Amino acid sequence: MTPSVPKYSAVADALVDRIRAGIYKPGDLLDSEPELTRQFGVSRHTVRAALRALYEKGLVIGQRGRGTVVQATAVNPRYRHACNSIEDVLQYAATTPRQVVARRRLVVDEALADWLGCAPGYSWWEVHTTRRQDTAGPVVASSQIWVPDAFGDAINDIEATDEPLFVAIERRFGCTFAQIRQTLSVASASAREATDLGVDEGAPVMCVERRFVDERGGLLEVSRSVHPAQGFRYETSLRRVIGT
Amino acid sequence: MTPSVPKYSAVADALVDRIRAGIYKPGDLLDSEPELTRQFGVSRHTVRAALRALYEKGLVIGQRGRGTVVQATAVNPRYRHACNSIEDVLQYAATTPRQVVARRRLVVDEALADWLGCAPGYSWWEVHTTRRQDTAGPVVASSQIWVPDAFGDAINDIEATDEPLFVAIERRFGCTFAQIRQTLSVASASAREATDLGVDEGAPVMCVERRFVDERGGLLEVSRSVHPAQGFRYETSLRRVIGT
DNA sequence: TTCTATTTGTTCGTATGTATG
DNA sequence: ACATACATACGAACAAATAGA
Fold it and tell me: Would the pTM count as exceeding 0.70?
């Protein structure tokens, strides 16, 4: 009966397809909102919701009095790591085979609790994984992941798949991550990380720390991934916020 | 009469103030949308536009059937570089004194044109600047900036101020940057960069490349900034995209 | 230059769907 | 089962900016 995907989302997908197909090219004007209203048989409100979705992807920018301008063609992920939403993290994970190297349970002490941003004294799991560019390729990421004790069962689920741990947690425990706080920095490879990545100990690496937060603001997972300096690029797009 | 700022923007500012003042704390529920409608005397549509602005800043997340949950208090910029919008770049620039080291005009050859993403054969300006943590502090950024020949006059404007070049270009030429495409990577310091930052040549640095694009999709400025690996952190927040 | 038509941005109203407690 | 809350979707009107006659 009621479609599982909202109308505005379907319209947005259709427009993304058109851009990807080259029907609209960067610099072109999209069809006007009244025109799209006719084409898709939806209200202007719905068309605008769809255009906002494209705007948030960095694909278009609206200009009053002129039209909606295509800014970029759809993202074309290569070795780069294009990142504007949680879905982009999923996309990256889906294309890089992962291996679970080790796991252990520990009680969070003061120092770790402070760094994780949780209360000390509780039992958490610490998982060590690596990701390769492809099945036989070089290691492109060495990660440590921490999750509360209760989520330990989800770790079993990811042994055989490449999906991120947080996806397994969502499926098994029915909770939903709504936000990821991310910090990028340059770090020196630890002995273990150096071994994983095949670089010298102390070599520069790109370090990505992520804190996964649910809708209630609760901390549900923390990860620290290091990538070899060579070849790792993190791409993002900023927009002006005045006048959504 | 006609307010220069839209109503939804004023409401959004008021809500950010409340969060910053601690009236709502992380994990708290905001007042409901009908309640906010009464408080501000605007329609629910306007309230929702304001809440969307807060959502896009990563401050709140809506949950149907429950309410709108505060996710974080307003960004508290320190030495870190919190970056979710062009305004955050401005904020960063406003707090770090800048010095113009050198400038020259050159004709873009094939290789540079390919890297910049423009057509070869045209004349561009290349500017070399540094930024310090504070007036007497260490250099925290060494930048090269390229702009088309026509914008050369704007370079004079920034000799005496700390504002980014693109702000001077906007003011003087009346054009507007609508989007910045950003790439972060780990690089090795060149001789000049090493001198600027006070590190060894070849030392690891965080490299931030930015391409400034106007509403029409035209490339108006390219910059490449390197930051010392020690102490540079780039923070951002990812959210789940609804629908899709 | 002035005027007009077009286009996006903002704001109101109303109704229904869906998830939560 | 019920009320509450946010999400989606329809309609309408005016404002502001642009482009072209």
Answer: yes
